[in-house]
Amino acid sequence: MLARNRWYGAAAVATVVVMAAACSKTIESDAASGLVNAASISLAATAPVSGAGNTFSTYLYSERDVDVFSRPGGGDLFEQGVIVKVIAVEVGDDVSAGDLLAVLEDDEAVLAVESAEAKAIEAGAQLKRFEVLREREVVAPSEYEAAFARARQADAELKRAQLDLSRTRVRAPFDGVVAKRYIRVRELVEAGTPLFRITAMSPLRARLLVPEWQAPAFGAGAPVQLSGVDGQTATAQVLLISPTVDPASGTREVIVELAAADGFRPGASVAVEPLSVMPGSDR
């Protein structure tokens, strides 16, 4: 009986060990699978590079990097979607703010503008006649006010029609390059469909999470050196540094900015090293 009890006790211990090992394996698997929050990813991406305690690994991004969407017009213009009529740019093309990217089907919008223009002209002419009659005091004030309201309404409808027509012309929001094209000619797109991605090639920024003790080297305006994977280097400046410390990681967020691209591109991996001397440093 004593031997049997010892056997059960050993089996129970072995079971606990196996369960603990299984739990440990599960935790490791979850972390390895990438199911971590954005803050953890950012922290890992900006951890000091091995062998260089003052150097941080991160990536460059453009502050102006957006998808350009189709925008709904009034009435039934986008209710059933709209056809892409013309594509004026291709991936890699440089564009300036306001440049035409694409034209969406505009037949109904053009007709709506023409109709609204005719109504606005008629209402304006009628209002002028009532103004003359009012000066002669041969028209009731209420009739003049009604004519004035009709003219205002007609002008508003014309502006709405012109706005709908303008939305069939897709234009670049700022200077940059066409990074992606999501659409094809004759494709049916609905309101809110992304059409292009426009990216400004400069200025470029990088985000760092700097340990609190290293933060003095990253004061606002302080210079930092960027090093690319191909060996290219450039000097950037600290744009801002968070006034607070993240208690979970003991770090402060630092944003550095490279005013001119200098051969660097958005999304490129870089190493960032402060050029100013930190307290207690041998440099």
Describe this structure as you would to a colleague:
This protein is an alpha+beta fold and 283 residues long. It folds into 3 domains: 37-63 and 201-283, Elongation Factor Tu (Ef-tu), domain 3 (Beta Barrel); 64-106 and 168-199, OB fold (Dihydrolipoamide Acetyltransferase, E2P), CATH 2.40.50; 109-154. It is 33% helix and 30% strand. It has 4 helices and 15 strands. It has helices at 2-32, 38-45, 107-135, 141-166; strands at 48-49, 52-62, 65-69, 82-87, 94-95, 100-104, 169-171, 176-181, 188-189, 194-199, 204-211, 223-228, 233-241, 251-258, 269-274. The strands form 3 sheets. The chain has a 6-stranded antiparallel β-barrel with strand order 2-11-14-13-12-15. It has a 4-stranded antiparallel β-sheet with strand order 3-10-8-5, with no helix packed on it. A 4-stranded antiparallel β-sheet has the order 7-6-4-9, with no helix packed on it. A hairpin with a 4-residue loop joins strand 12 (223-228) and strand 13. Helix 3 runs antiparallel to helix 4 (141-166). The radius of gyration is 32 Å and the shape is elongated. The N and C termini lie far apart (73 Å). The relative contact order is 0.17.
What overall form do the CA principal axes indicate? elongated
Number of strands: 15
Topology-level CATH name of the largest domain:
Elongation Factor Tu (Ef-tu), domain 3
How many H/I helical runs? Answer: 4
Radius of gyration, CA atoms, in whole angstroms: 32 Å
Instruction: Quote the average pLDDT.
Output: 81
Main sheet record: 6 strands, antiparallel, barrel
Order of helices and strands: HHEEEEEEHHEEEEEEEEE
- Helical content stands at 25-40%
Q: β content, as a range?
A: 25-35%
N→C terminal distance: 73 Å
Class computed from helices, strands and strand pairing? alpha+beta
Query: How are the strands of the biggest sheet laid out side by side?
Result: 2-11-14-13-12-15
Question: Which stretches are low in confidence, meaning pLDDT under 50 for 5 or more residues running?
Answer: 1-52, 279-283
CATH architect. name of the largest domain: Beta Barrel
Please tell me the total number of domains.
3
Tell me the name of the CATH class of the largest domain: Mainly Beta
Output the CATH homologous superfamily of the largest domain.
Efflux pump adaptor protein, beta barrel domain
